[in-house]
Design a protein that fits this description.
Helices cover 25% and strands 21% of the residues. By secondary structure, it is an alpha+beta fold. The relative contact order is 0.12. Strand 26, helix 13 and strand 27 (637-642) form a beta-alpha-beta unit. The protein has 3 domains: 27-211, Jelly Rolls, CATH 2.60.120; 236-393 and 544-697, Alpha-Beta Barrel (TIM Barrel), CATH 3.20.20.80; 413-540, no CATH class. The strands form 6 sheets. Strands 1, 2, 3, 4, 5, 9 and 12 form a 7-stranded antiparallel beta sheet that branches.
Length: 699
């Protein structure tokens, strides 16, 4: 995953923007009191706090602005109040939005207004949200207490909604979660008068050091109290027989071969000894090595442990009991996996050591395999490590191959040779393995060829890629008319040699896009051709493209010819929508969802709230059931992979060092938590629906 990129839990909507000794360079802090807008379409409204500061200094209170954003379908207007503000003072803000004007009040006094007519957007309302792109700490925090929205329209009774926000039991919880939004259905009528009233106050930023240590020796938040919290090593060991009893109580899937294929659907494909795909009665299927049709369900990052190490350097005081780096727990310590200086510690590994002893790695892998089988998954997904008799979806890389402007120069014969060598080293140990579902290379946006990359290549000195791009433009865009190309690219003369050697070129945006598509098509074709030359038997899934997180829609079509199955990631509530379904159908190829998830909102335990999330584990199970059922009913989809096997650490999985509270992702994605306990309310529902998916896919 992801740092990805896809958005309410309990009614905690007190928003804290904490100060820190280290902050992001872009110190932007934004908190939406209420938001029902489509900014790009110039529609809707929002009421929020905004602040920013240069450098590493957290934004101060004296630059905090309260803004009412209103759009009329053509433009936005921003009535605002910019202080002065007082700490520990009760405030009431009121915004009145009507067909003729919008007015902003603070403590009963009119502060600003605009005369434009708001054009509503029909979407849910979100209250109390900090966007991920503007969540820098500040020198204060804002506590929202109540929100009331009323809508009146002549001839209609008033519509109204009131939310009461409450604080968690301890400020230590708020250190980890500066927002916890509440979303509700609300239809804003064009001619109505909408009144928003909210009460809040402002406090000085809470000192992080005041609440240290924050994390116990098991990786749990000390201040949190919840069922199943581990308090001793004995708790970890006692969980083993209890889990075995739980798993044995689950109903196993029927009529499956060892690769997840269904033996009772009334038809078979060819038994090739490898996974392949086949269309049967208009429906795409995986066909297992034994020839049986299969709708594949997998779990990513199983049983990987080292992904979830958290930085320790510069913030050991946050953690109550870190063991010595040598001895029993030395496997839990590591250097940065991100190529930086500093020490990292893995609570998952230390808990596995406590649970299983010195043979923790072998027993942990066996435990993961048992869980996959008992929960009726077909096998493992992306980022997993090989386990005996478990299908998996390995992701290849090209570390050590030189990059030109983000990717290897596939127009260079020597670079193609290096690519072949590094991919061959990774593939050949599994060349004849029936347990490999298929290969992929890289991940998500990193493998998108962007226009910036093309501009960068053209600005660099001579390279095979630069020469190929210019030749393509001359032949295919300008029909070998060097004079026309020189004029369009703002070059001094029309000689072909000038086109090739010019140090400064300015191709029009349309030319850059055409060259980008040419480069991308050749790049994806080269990777596919190399993999197939090494291994003609296994499938190729591409690079897990993310619909919408690309240069433009053409990227889907650019990869399609060079995949056996289009692997993609999509974090969304629904498996597909009309726009995405049209994209799928356009290429007439099978698709495999490589990552999706609905991590429960565990802010009460210190976990982060992912943009696409569930209220709790039980709701996560319901959302999983809905998602995979829709996927199984889709004739193009051949499987789904849940992200992921384990939760991420509360303090983030890096990279970083220093006193920051969180580095990287810190979400409850897992089937199991940091103490290796199954999230039972989630997985019990997974087991039930997983057993039915082959049958659902056939109807």
């Amino acid at each position: 995953m992801h740092t990805k990129h896809s958005f309410a839990g309990c009614l905690l909507l007190s928003v804290l923007l904490f100060g820190s000794t280290q902050c992001a360079k872009a110190s932007n802090s934004r908190f939406y009191i209420i938001n029902q807008s489509d900014f790009g379409a110039d529609k809707g409204f929002y009421l929020d706090f905004e602040n920013s500061a240069n450098g590493n200094t957290p934004p101060p209170l004296n630059t905090l602005r309260l803004i009412l954003g209103v759009a009329n379908g053509k433009q936005w207007q921003y009535p605002l109040f910019q202080g002065p503000w007082q700490y520990n003072t009760p405030y009431t803000v009121k915004a009145i939005i009507s067909s003729s004007k919008s007015v902003l009040y603070l403590n009963g006094r009119q502060e600003a207004f605009t005369n434009i007519q708001m054009m509503p957007v029909q979407s849910s309302i979100t209250a109390g949200m900090i966007p991920s792109w503007a969540n820098s700490p500040a020198q204060y925090y804002i506590t929202l207490h109540t929100l009331h929205i009323t809508q009146t329209l002549s001839g209609h009774g008033p519509a109204q909604k009131t939310i009461h926000f409450s604080l968690p039991a301890t400020p230590a919880l708020l250190l980890f979660n500066s927002d916890n939004p509440h979303t509700f259905v609300w239809s804003t009528l064009p001619q109505a008068v909408t009144t928003i009233t909210a009460s809040f106050d402002i406090h000085r930023a809470v000192s992080l050091q005041k609440y240290e240590p924050l994390i116990d020796k098991y990786g749990q938040l000390i201040a949190a109290h919840f069922p199943g919290k581990v308090h001793s090593d004995r708790d970890l060991k006692n969980a083993i027989p209890l889990e075995n009893a739980f798993l044995n109580s689950l109903k196993p899937a029927k009529h499956r071969d060892q690769y997840g294929g269904d033996t009772a659907l009334g038809w078979k494909g060819k038994a090739t000894g490898y996974y392949h795909v086949q269309q049967h009665n208009g429906v795409w299927w995986f066909i297992t090595p034994l020839g049986n049709p299969c709708f594949y369900t997998g779990v990513c990052s199983a049983p990987q442990l080292y992904f979830d190490s958290t930085p320790v350097s510069g913030r050991k005081n946050m953690m109550a009991q870190l063991p010595p780096m040598q001895g029993r727990f030395q496997d839990a310590w590591s250097q940065s996996a991100w190529g930086q200086q500093g020490k990292y510690y893995n609570f998952n590994i230390s808990n596995m050591i406590r649970k299983f002893g010195p043979n923790w790695m072998k027993l942990g892998a066996a435990e993961a395999a048992q869980r996959i089988h008992k929960l009726n998954f077909t096998g493992a997904g992306k980022w997993s490590s090989p386990m005996p008799n478990i299908p998996w979806c390995p992701v290849l890389g090209y570390s050590g191959v030189p990059l030109l402007a983000g990717h290897p120069d596939i127009f260079s014969a020597s670079v193609r040779q290096m690519l072949t060598q590094t991919l061959s080293r990774q593939i050949k140990p599994y060349l004849h393995s029936p347990w490999v579902t298929g290969w992929s290379i890289g991940n998500e946006h990193d493998e998108i060829i962007t226009t910036d990359e093309i501009v960068s290549i053209l600005a660099q000195s001579a390279s095979p890629a630069r020469e190929a791009l210019i030749k393509f433009a001359l032949k295919h865009i300008y029909s070998n008319n060097a004079s026309a190309m020189a004029a369009a690219w703002k070059l001094p003369d029309e000689r072909v040699s000038t086109l090739m050697q010019a140090k400064h070129v300015s191709p029009p945006p349309a030319d850059v896009e055409a060259m980008r598509r040419y480069y991308a098509a050749n790049y994806y074709r080269t990777l596919y051709t190399i993999v197939k030359s090494i291994d003609p038997n296994h499938l190729y899934f591409g690079f897990w493209i993310v619909p919408g997180w690309w240069q433009n829609k053409s990227d889907w079509s650019l990869i399609a010819p060079w995949c056996d199955v289009i692997g993609y990631d999509r974090y969304a509530v629904h498996f597909t929508n009309s726009w995405f379904q049209a994209l799928i159908q356009k290429t007439h190829k099978p698709v495999l969802c490589g990552e999706f998830s609905f991590p429960p909102n565990l802010v009460s335990q210190g976990m982060g709230r992912y943009p696409v999330y569930a209220q709790n584990a039980e709701q996560a199970g319901k959302m999983y059931t809905q998602y995979v059922t829709a996927a199984a009913h889709n004739p193009y989809c051949v499987g789904t992979l849940w992200f992921e096997y384990r939760d991420e650490p509360i303090t983030g999985r890096g990279p970083g060092q220093g006193a920051n509270l969180i580095y990287g992702e810190h979400y409850a994605f897992g089937l199991v938590n940091v103490t290796d306990q199954l999230r039972r309310n989630l997985v019990v529902q997974m087991a039930v629906i997983n057993a039915e998916l082959n049958h659902l896919h056939s109807h």
